[in-house]
Amino acid sequence: MARLARRICNSDTSVKGNHQKGQGSRPEQRRFDIDTLPDYEHSRNDRSPMILQTENRNCPCGSGKSYSECCQPLHQGEVAFTPEALMRSRYAAFVLKLPDYLRATWHESSRPETLSLEDSPDWTSLQILDTNQSGDRGSVLFRAVYRLGKGWGFLEENSDFVREQGRWYYLRGDTSEGQLKPGRNEPCPCGSGRKHKACCL
Ligand SMILES: [Zn+2]
Ligand SMILES: [Zn+2]
């Protein structure tokens, strides 16, 4: 999903507010110090309006859990324990437009200098097709669907991940793209969980 998000990002969508420190929910888990990661400029305590709207809703990654119990802790600095968890949180970061998180979880050897999500498509759903992990290497094959006019486009990517000092990073990916033509009885690409014919058809 790298090349779908280029250009410079200097928009400040963060909102200052009276937020919790975010430490309460899972204190036993290790946190990495996200503030020391390169260019992680927004404090993890700043939340965009989009995040505030999303907290109690289903996580954008499609896990079926609420955002606050799924990808939000990772966006706030907790460690992803598997390549799939990191992949899901990165997809959710594309949806929620969190370029700093994407750069912070990008391996330094391939991390883009700047990242803007302004031209990013309107992502609607994520499907994990396969995952592999062997030691500190991992890969995730996924399909991400987005709105394309009145239809749907998809990006399929086999992403490589590497773990360094206990932390997974996105390394690179082989991508292919196409248009999606879901059958009437297939799950709706909008991610609702309903059949296509009963939803967006
Ligand atoms: Zn999630
Ligand atoms: Zn739908």
Give me the secondary-structure topology.
Layout (H helix, E strand, L loop, with lengths): L48 H6 L17 H4 L7 H14 L2 H6 L18 E12 L2 E12 L2 E14 L2 E14 L21
Antiparallel strand pairs: 1-2, 2-3, 3-4
Explain what you see.
This protein has 201 residues and is of the alpha+beta class. It has one domain (34-198): Nuclear Transport Factor 2, Chain: A, CATH 3.10.450.50. It is 15% helix and 26% strand. It has helices spanning 49-54, 72-75, 83-96, 99-104, and strands spanning 123-134, 137-148, 151-164, 167-180. It has a four-stranded antiparallel beta sheet with strand order 1-2-3-4, covered by helices on one side. A hairpin with a 2-residue loop joins β1 (123-134) and β2. The radius of gyration is 17 Å and the shape is globular. The chain starts with 48 loop residues before the first helix and ends in a 21-residue tail after the last strand. Residues 5-32 and 38-45 have low confidence and may be disordered. One zinc ion is lined by residues 59, 61, 63, 70-71, 88, 92.
